[in-house]
Task: inverse folding
């Protein structure tokens, strides 16, 4: 049965155009072709990426955070309370009013004290500013290097300037070492992101991020199997062109350099819109949808590849919506922040006031303490 499944999965009609077989893609005469077995190396490379990331965050990102004066807000910890902790872990982090009243009776605390306990407990679970900075630093470093390397891989190729040449001679297209390593490194990195997603900073688009990583891994793997390598290198470089800008904007945001963050974010938004909503659908997708049909009839691989490209395009539209919302806030003078991030709650949430007298009563609050001077912003 397993052999039958294996034979059906690797049936040439699924992966290759009509009248072509895997034998046509065997290495010969010094020409090397993409093979599925090449991708086995990406899993150990993904683990290597996780190790490199650990040491990078420890010995590079952490000192950089100190240099940029990335500071944590003081968080008041929720006092131990078995009753409230049990509810928090088993029933939910946001108790309804009826739950608050019940927990108040069970714990002997007032309703206001129960609400305060849950706010502090939720804040404890939120990732620290340093964790966010280190994660953004790692991704910025990879995406920047990947974009530079990817550009070097494709800039001297004829299909970079004439998309019809992407399919010239397809699928009998040999690969060169630079294409091989570009693919292996990109795929390994996305495997590492998928492996670490449970421990990384969780944002509101957590599910969309999982879909994106899975779709990207499938697309990169399939494009290698089916020898869509030329199209694949163009797509990967296009995606890397804006990602490093977003991560650098996050880094400056966490460091408190708001003007620099906002300026980089505007550049990122422009690059994202141009690459993901203009170049990708009207050039790259047109290239993968229209030009192949001029050479051979559509087959399963053709439909599958373009379907996955459509999934990515829908995610781009979703993220473009979030980006435009943030850009609108910037233009209208509001603070620009990551729309996907949860906001940290303060002790004054839901109208609660700190127990402080005199003029401090009406001052801004941070974790329940009046802020004496809230104007320490870096001047870029």
Result:
């Amino acid at each position: 049965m397993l052999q039958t499944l294996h034979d059906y999965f690797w049936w040439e009609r699924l992966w290759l155009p009509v009248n072509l077989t895997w034998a046509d893609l065997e290495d010969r005469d010094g020409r090397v072709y993409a093979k599925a077995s090449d991708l086995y190396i990406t899993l150990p490379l993904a683990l290597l990426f996780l190790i490199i990331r650990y040491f990078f965050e420890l010995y590079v990102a952490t000192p950089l955070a100190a240099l940029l004066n990335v500071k944590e807000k003081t968080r008041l910890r929720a006092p131990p309370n078995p009753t409230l902790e049990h509810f928090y872990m088993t029933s939910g982090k946001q108790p309804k009013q009826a739950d608050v009243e019940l927990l108040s009776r069970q714990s002997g605390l007032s309703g206001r004290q129960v609400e305060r306990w849950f706010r502090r407990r939720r804040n404890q679970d939120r990732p620290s500013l340093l964790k966010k900075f280190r994660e953004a630093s790692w991704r910025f470093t990879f995406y920047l290097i990947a974009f530079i390397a990817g550009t070097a891989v494709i800039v001297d190729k004829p299909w970079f300037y004439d998309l019809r040449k992407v399919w010239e001679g397809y699928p009998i297209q040999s690969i060169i070492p630079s294409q091989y390593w570009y693919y292996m490194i990109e795929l390994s990195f996305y495997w590492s992101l998928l492996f670490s997603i449970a421990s990384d900073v969780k944002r509101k688009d957590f599910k969309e991020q999982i879909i994106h990583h899975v779709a990207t891994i499938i697309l990169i793997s399939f494009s290698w199997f089916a020898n869509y390598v030329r199209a694949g290198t163009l797509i990967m470089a296009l995606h890397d062109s804006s990602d490093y800008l977003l991560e650098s904007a996050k880094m400056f945001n966490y460091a408190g350099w708001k003007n620099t963050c906002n300026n980089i974010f505007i550049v990122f938004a422009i690059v994202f819109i141009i690459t993901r909503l203009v170049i990708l659908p009207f050039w790259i997708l047109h290239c993968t949808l229209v030009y192949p049909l001029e050479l051979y009839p559509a087959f399963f691989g053709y439909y599958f590849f373009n379907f996955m490209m459509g999934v990515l395009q829908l995610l781009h539209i979703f993220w473009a919506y979030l980006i435009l919302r943030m850009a609108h806030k910037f233009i209208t003078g509001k603070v620009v922040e990551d729309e996907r991030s949860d906001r940290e709650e303060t002790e004054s949430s839901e109208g609660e006031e700190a127990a402080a007298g005199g003029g401090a009563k009406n001052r801004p609050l941070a974790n329940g303490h009046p802020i004496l001077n809230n104007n320490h912003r870096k001047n870029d």
